[in-house]
UniProtKB/TrEMBL annotation:
UniProt GO MF annotations: transmembrane transporter activity
Entries under InterPro entries matching the protein: ABC3_permease_C (IPR003838), MacB_PCD (IPR025857), Macrolide_Exporter_MacB (IPR050250)
GO cellular component terms listed in the entry, alphabetical order: plasma membrane
Keywords: Cell membrane, Membrane, Transmembrane, Transmembrane helix
Protein name: ABC transporter substrate-binding protein
Spans traversing the lipid bilayer: 253-276, 297-320, 340-361, 394-412, 424-452, 482-501, 727-752, 780-806, 812-837
Domain of life: Bacteria
Family stated for the protein in its record: Belongs to the ABC-4 integral membrane protein family.
Pfam family for this entry, one: FtsX
Coiled-coil portions: none
Occurrences of domain ABC3 transporter permease C-terminal (ranges): 253-371, 730-837
Length: 851
């Protein structure tokens, strides 16, 4: 049987090559994803202590605490050591860039308890030195040894710090730390810069005497510190794993798509194989072989095909795994090293072989049902395909659902805390429902596309004769063409949607922010240099208009009579809202009579001259939406030592990047504090923008920092997206590759099936070039339709995704829609040429003889 199976593969090498490559791509992705679902949890388990930095960590962002309170809550009998940190959002300036950054003040002698090797020479960190995350350093375009400046909230001046080293592979928990990056400095210096009382902390790290039972300590901390979160090693593991499940699930679904395409390819291959082996089946039946024996013979052939393809896929997948694990480790901020998992190898072989058997079952069953007399009399084709018995179909369907459920049970039900057996059963049921939905969905689309191709086929009697062969082939093979169109459309959809979303999100966010702040440049300066700033801006060319506002840091105390910390906690109980992780808020005092405003009112009204000196305020619209605040509600905020009750008179627009949270009149702000910084929102002329910005920077006072939205905030967004977009683009191209391989396989199979037709055409004088043009035209029409459909669907998906981040109209760059169509046509043309040349080069006599 083995020799026979090998000979069958070698009868049509090109057909076997495309089939094996499709299986290899599918099983390679399946193997990699199966291994990753084991590698990620293992890496998390091994590195959880380093990720947490202690036995127990406490985040008190909503209501900061003090080290004295922590020592009282967790007595010495329960802890070995304790250290705290102060974390907040700040502004950093390098020689080339200005940006926001997360500032973290720590005790260099003790922080962290575990994983200190990731913080270069932290124990010798001086008061004028900082450690900078590698992400932030890349964005600021600096390296170790360079100097950066941070704003001192005490007097509004800029303090210089030397970058002692770069920190990589550390994931902080403070809001937006993954976006902005983190600067680590001494605790005493962070307190001085941010103007908070000494001893105040919002992160605490503890080494415990007994790490086995931390439940009572965590519960006590949560009761004593409102809105705090306490996490031990198990909590950290669960948190990190929960953050990886979404990415892993997407990757698994892509791999299942590739396996499904491989199954369709095997089905088509075995259909043609069985059509060419009908006389062999007739002879087998004539000499007394029964149907099960004949079926086993040909199913072994399919299993052998699946085995070779799976083996190739595992070898390829193992090589790809090294690069993939390094990339995912960077994306998930996890220490990870690729290794070969035997269970993943076994599972891949099981899936690869069973998929091959299931895909071949129907063609084999159909072929062995015909009587020997009919087969020996016939020309070698099965005129009527016979379906599998429904019981057999159900059994095969359940096998597929069982394998799919086993594969997805860890990620499909990531939030479920039930046992493994329950997850398997639930995942099996979900897989069954998903497959039923997809099959119905596929049937509808095959019918719709098939109807389109049949209509095109009818045009052969209307259009000139030169179109006859093309339209005849499109109409006669309408089911095959419909399936190929769907497969290729899905590949184009993924490519176009991922690229459209990535390319347009940054531009859309930039346009939205410039509209919201009515400017494209932000300048932050010391308040005592206001006159100098006004003089510079009035005398600078290219400045169209500007608005200014004084700034103070504050915090919410009560919202509509409810404790603010509790309100924030309730709002984030069911969903993660990063900006609500802290009650801190930036309060800006503006001139209500100025015609230039740095905000756009979304609801209610803006501040007017009548509000001058009154306790009227406008809030960022997010607070109204997420906290249920309404016009007329009162909020209490702490400004320095005063608690100030403010009445909400309006809400202003907000975008992806969150800006100031509250705006009041400047007289109101000055009555409760002495602002040390003020912001200018400047609209520079788009023509010669960079030159205007350079000249402006040269003229600014020493305390001022100017940055364009594009070069700071948008640059940060671009760098954050680059890692994610590269990953999803790779997945999209992978899906497209499998679709192209399927098309190549289909071209070969189609030519094998039409061997006699091709021979007759060549015998009557039709040249190879004309036949090739006909085949190319047929597949290019298919690719063109697939490209249009896939690009349009990708455009719709991209618009839906962008609408989640950007409000209002989005000006899309549609270049990738055109690229998607061209990519579909060019790759289809290339693979069609490769698949056709060998078959079309054969002599007609050989074709008619069946050689």
């Amino acid at each position: 049987m083995l020799i026979s199976a090998f000979r069958s593969l070698m009868r049509t090498p090109l057909r076997s090559l495309f089939t094996l490559l499709t299986i290899a791509v599918g099983t390679a992705s399946l193997f990699c994803m199966s291994a990753m679902t084991q590698l990620v949890p293992e890496s998390v388990n091994q590195s959880s202590r380093q990720l947490l930095g202690a036995d127990l960590s406490v985040q008190a962002y909503l209501e900061p605490t003090t080290m004295g309170d922590i020592r009282r809550i967790v007595p010495e009998t329960e802890r070995q050591a304790v250290t705290g940190a102060w974390v907040t959002l700040a502004t950093v300036r390098s020689e080339l860039k200005t940006s926001n950054i997360i500032l973290k003040g720590v005790d260099p002698d003790t922080y962290p308890y575990y994983g200190r090797e990731k913080f270069p020479d932290i124990q010798n960190l001086q008061s004028d030195e900082i450690l900078l995350s590698a992400q932030a350093a890349g964005r600021l375009q600096i390296k170790a040894g360079d100097t950066v400046s941070l704003i001192n909230q005490q007097d509004g001046s800029l303090n210089a710090f030397r970058v002692k080293g770069l920190v990589d592979g550390v994931q902080e928990s403070y809001t937006d730390s993954a976006f902005w990056g983190t600067a680590y400095l001494s605790y005493s210096k962070s307190i001085e810069l941010t103007r908070v009382p000494s001893g105040t902390v919002n992160e605490v790290y503890l080494q415990l005497n007994d790490t086995a039972d931390t439940g009572a300590i965590k519960e006590n901390i949560r009761k004593q510190i409102v809105g705090s979160q306490a996490a031990d090693l198990e909590d950290k593991k669960a948190e990190v794993l929960a953050g990886t499940k979404g990415t892993l699930l997407v990757m698994q679904l892509f791999s299942l798509l590739a396996v499904a395409i491989a199954a369709v390819t095997i089905f088509n291959t075995m259909t043609i194989v069985m059509a060419g082996r009908l006389r062999d089946i007739a002879i087998m039946k004539s000499v007394g072989m029964n149907k099960p024996s004949i079926a086993r013979y040909f199913l072994f052939e399919a299993a052998f095909l699946g085995f070779i393809g799976t083996l190739t896929g595992i070898v390829i997948g193992n090589l790809i795994g090294y690069g993939m694990s390094a990339y995912i480790a960077k994306m998930l901020v996890l220490p990870m090293e690729w290794k070969l998992y035997i269970p993943s190898v076994v599972f891949s072989f099981v899936v690869g072989i069973t998929v091959a058997l299931i895909a071949a079952w129907s063609p084999v069953h159909s072929a062995i049902q015909v009587s020997p007399l009919e087969l020996l009399r016939d020309s070698g084709l099965v005129h009527k395909q016979k379906r599998l018995p429904w019981k057999t179909s159900v059994k095969l369907f359940l096998v597929i659902c069982a394998e799919m459920g086993f594969y997805l049970h860890e990620t499909l039900l990531a939030a479920n805390q039930d046992g493994v057996v329950f997850k398997w059963i639930a995942s099996f049921v979900l897989s069954m429902l998903i497959l039923i939905f997809l099959l119905v969905f596929l049937k509808l689309f095959v019918f719709g596309y098939g109807l389109l191709y049949r209509m095109l086929g009818r045009l052969k009697t209307v259009l000139p004769m030169r179109w006859f062969l093309l339209l005849h082939n499109l109409g006669s093979d309408y089911k095959r063409n419909a399936l190929l169109t769907i497969t290729l459309s899905v590949g184009v959809l993924f490519v176009v949607a991922s690229q459209l979303f990535t390319d347009n999100l940054v531009n859309a966010v930039q346009a939205q922010m410039e509209k919201q702040v009515n400017g494209n440049v932000i300048i932050s300066a010391a308040a005592d240099e206001e006159e100098e700033m006004n003089r510079v801006l009035e005398g600078s060319s290219g400045v169209k208009h500007y608005a200014r506002g004084y700034e103070l840091k504050g915090s919410f105390v009560r919202l509509g009579g409810t404790d603010a910390a509790q309100k924030f906690l309730d709002a984030t109980a069911d969903r993660k809202i990063s900006y609500l992780n802290t009650t801190n808020v930036t309060i800006q005092g503006i001139d209500p009579v100025s015609s230039a405003l740095a905000y756009t009112v979304q609801e209610g009204r803006g501040l007017t001259e009548e509000d001058n000196g009154k306790l009227s305020a406008i809030l960022r619209e997010d607070y109204g939406r997420d906290l249920g605040l309404r016009l007329g509600d009162r909020v209490e905020v702490r400004i320095n030592s005063d608690v100030v009750p403010l009445k909400i008179v309006g809400f202003y627009e907000s975008g992806v990047i969150k800006s100031e949270g509250i705006r009041v009149t400047e007289n109101t702000l000055k009555a409760y504090g002495s602002p040390t910084r003020l912001n200018y929102y400047v609209e520079l002329s788009a023509r010669g923008f960079q030159e205007h910005l350079t000249n402006l920077n040269r003229s600014l006072p020493a305390s001022a920092v100017a940055y364009s939205l594009n070069s700071s905030i948008i640059d940060s967004l671009q760098k954050t997206l680059s890692t994610q977009s590269t990953f999803f683009s790779a997945m999209a191209l992978f899906a497209f590759l499998t679709a192209i391989l399927m098309i190549g396989n289909q071209v070969v199979l189609s030519l094998v099936q039409k061997n006699r037709d091709v021979a007759i055409f060549k015998t009557i004088g039709l040249s190879t070039g004309r036949l090739l043009r006909s085949i190319l035209s047929e597949n290019l029409v298919l690719a063109f339709l697939s490209g249009i459909i896939g690009s349009f669907a990708g455009l719709v998906f991209a618009l839906l995704a962008l609408s989640l981040f950007v409000k209002g109209n989005v000006d899309l760059n549609l270049t990738w829609c055109i690229i998607g169509i061209l990519l579909s046509m060019l790759t289809t043309a290339a693979v069609t040429l490769a698949a056709s040349l060998q078959s079309l080069g054969a002599k007609p006599l050989h074709m008619l003889r069946g050689n």
